[in-house]
């Protein structure tokens, strides 16, 4: 592999320069707080990640995406950033982060970090300065401070709706104790929105990108990427359909100039530093705009992740996704879950196996066996699709969603729903590594409680079980890397029945997923490369098989072990 040596202070970081690495990469999402605890305090940290890099190498991933690791009051799991140029002391130090980036690269694993452009923490120095400076000050112009409506300014400036339910404006208090201006926050009050019309905001974020690219980071994931720009007139939300680009705080056209600036920064560096957007949009044409050659490299495909266990729904989503990306030449991304979404091993075992934030409720019945079977089948289905693959930590172990006691839940989505929504902490429970009881080798007493029946889900238990979900993921990733058709072959649909998703990649590879209730015959093939469930003469329900139509000699070379 060709390399570029990047000098940073007294240390040397070697950056790989293989072109287009991100187009078919396998990227593993690390929620640091819950991955592995290196110092025994019950909170995951960078020391824990560094100690487990060998595990990630054995899994076969190309990159690690870290959720925010910056100093934060954790009002929203770290997405309320207090300082972008440091590491939260609960996780480690900046020196440790630099060491981790370099050590991961030595294993052939790149690092992607989270950037949150829409808002900051209310403890960030900019916001503290804005509060202290008062109305009309330059410091307040970096945010959305505004007088209230009504005779005494008691009414919020807009009727905009929070992503976390509840109000989007909070009123300040003047030094003399009287009510002051209001400030905008599309999420929690602890996350004041930035004003992207201000040059300081643009300049600061481009400098932050350079700060981390200088330290060897290979890319950034852009949180809530369609939200940062607001209409300065602060209009009311329209009651009917909203014209493209006319929403007061979503998907505004001005965003694209911002991301072109970010792309220009990324392109200053060798080794292809990538921009990955979190873009939740229904409009395919508007979505594709973010992926033009001078903007983001890729964006998350949430449409597929939210589909029910239905051949028609999933195939339609795959077709739609590939069609959205084709005009701009960008690769699709495939993901089954993340730190916000109910884990697939639970979701697919429910009567409603789709996902929507507003439908999450306590006590939803789940068929755990069916959910596990379908999650394994879905893992192979997504790994066979053209584009990049994201794996949320623990899905490779088949971890289920945990329904936590209300008193331990920390997620603001739960609290701002009045306790109706169980929130997102159920997919953030610390990972089980070894042993028969909690903390299952995680470290100290976990910050969120682990179930008492996770012994079979530990890495230790699955290492010795060749039928485990961990082994399934390892084999799938190794085959994905070694079979030429899975990296270069186009997708061609095969018609094997209404409840079957089947397609050919290239000349010799076929993936078949049975989403129906009865077994289906497999097409003629030379070899079964991998299957999510035991096979007889046919493919059982809720399972996927990868087939070779003839001998594939290239499998003997290039697989990452």
TrEMBL record:
SUPFAM superfamilies: (Trans)glycosidases
Pfam family, one: Alpha-amylase
Domain Glycosyl hydrolase family 13 catalytic, chain residue ranges per copy: 29-428
Stored InterPro entries: GH (IPR017853), GH13_cat_dom (IPR006047), O16G_dom_2 (IPR045857)
SMART domains: Aamy (SM00642)
Family the UniProt entry places it in: Belongs to the glycosyl hydrolase 13 family.
Stated name of the protein: Alpha-glucosidase
Gene source species: Microbacterium murale
Taxonomic placement: Bacteria, Bacillati, Actinomycetota, Actinomycetes, Micrococcales
């Amino acid at each position: 592999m060709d390399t570029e040596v990047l000098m940073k202070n007294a240390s040397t970081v070697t950056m790989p320069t293989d072109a287009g690495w991100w187009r078919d990469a396998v990227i593993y999402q690390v929620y640091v707080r819950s991955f592995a605890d290196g110092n025994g305090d019950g909170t995951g940290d960078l020391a824990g990640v560094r100690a487990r890099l060998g595990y990630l190498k054995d899994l076969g991933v190309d990159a690690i995406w870290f959720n925010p690791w910056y100093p934060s009051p954790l009002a929203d799991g770290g997405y309320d950033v207090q300082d972008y140029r440091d590491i939260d002391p609960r996780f480690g130090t900046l020196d440790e982060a630099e060491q981790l980036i370099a050590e991961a690269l030595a294993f052939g694993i790149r690092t992607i970090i989270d950037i949150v452009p829409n808002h900051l923490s209310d403890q960030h120095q900019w916001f503290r300065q804005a509060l202290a400076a008062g109305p009309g000050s330059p410091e307040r112009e970096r945010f959305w401070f505004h007088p209230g409506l009504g005779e005494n300014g008691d009414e919020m400036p807009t009727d905009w709706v929070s992503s976390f339910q509840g109000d989007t404006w909070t009123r300040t208090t003047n030094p003399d104790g009287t009510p002051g201006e209001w400030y905008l926050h599309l999420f929690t009050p602890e996350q004041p929105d930035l004003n992207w019309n201000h040059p300081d905001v643009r300049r600061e974020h481009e400098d932050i990108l350079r700060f981390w690219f200088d330290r060897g980071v290979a890319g950034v994931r852009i949180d809530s990427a369609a939200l940062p720009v607001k209409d300065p007139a602060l209009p009311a939300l329209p009651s009917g359909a909203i014209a493209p680009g006319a929403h007061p705080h979503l998907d505004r056209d001005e965003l694209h100039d911002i991301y072109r600036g970010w792309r220009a920064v990324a392109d200053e560096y060798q080794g292809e530093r990538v921009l990955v957007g979190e873009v939740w949009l229904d409009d395919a044409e508007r979505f594709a705009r973010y992926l033009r050659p001078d903007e983001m490299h890729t964006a998350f495909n949430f449409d597929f992740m939210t589909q029910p266990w239905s051949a028609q729904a999933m195939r339609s989503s795959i077709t739609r996704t590939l069609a959205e990306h084709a005009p701009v030449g960008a690769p699709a991304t495939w993901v089954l879950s993340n730190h916000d979404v109910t884990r697939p091993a639970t979701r697919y075992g429910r009567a409603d196996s789709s996902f929507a934030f507003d439908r999450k409720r306590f006590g939803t019945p789940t068929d755990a066996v069916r959910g596990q079977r379908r999650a394994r089948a879905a893992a192979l289905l997504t790994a066979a699709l053209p584009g990049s693959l994201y794996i949320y930590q623990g899905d490779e172990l088949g971890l289920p969603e945990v329904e936590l006691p209300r008193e331990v839940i920390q997620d603001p989505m739960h609290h701002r729903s009045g306790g109706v929504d169980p929130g997102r902490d159920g997919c953030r429970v610390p990972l089980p590594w070894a042993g028969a009881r909690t903390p299952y080798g995680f470290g100290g007493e976990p910050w969120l409680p682990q179930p008492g029946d996770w012994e079979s889900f530990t890495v230790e238990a699955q290492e010795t079980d060749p039928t485990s979900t961990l082994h399934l993921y390892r084999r799938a990733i190794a085959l994905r890397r070694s079979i030429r058709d899975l990296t270069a072959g186009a997708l061609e649909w095969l018609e094997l029945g209404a409840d079957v998703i089947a397609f050919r990649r290239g000349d010799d590879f076929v993936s078949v997923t049975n989403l129906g209730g009865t077994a289906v015959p497999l097409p003629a093939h030379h070899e079964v490369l991998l299957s999510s469930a035991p096979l007889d003469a046919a493919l059982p329900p809720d399972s996927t098989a990868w087939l070779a139509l003839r001998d594939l000699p290239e499998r003997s070379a290039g697989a990452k072990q």
